[in-house]
Amino acid sequence: MTLNVWNNRGDATARAALINAELRRLAADLVAFQEVLPGQLPAFLDGTGLHGTHQSRTAATAPPRVDRYGGTAIATRQPHRIVETLDQRGANAPDVPWLTLAARVPTAETGGEEVLFIAPTLSFRLEAEAERERQAIGLCDLDARHRTTLPTIIAGDFNADPDAACIRYLTGRQSLSGRGTHFHDAWEVAGSGPGHTWSCDNPNAAEDIERLVRQPGHHRRIDYIFVGSPHAHPNAFARVRRAELAFHKPVDGVWASDHYGVVADLEVGVLAHP
Question: What's the predicted TM-score (pTM) here?
Answer without folding.
Answer: 0.96
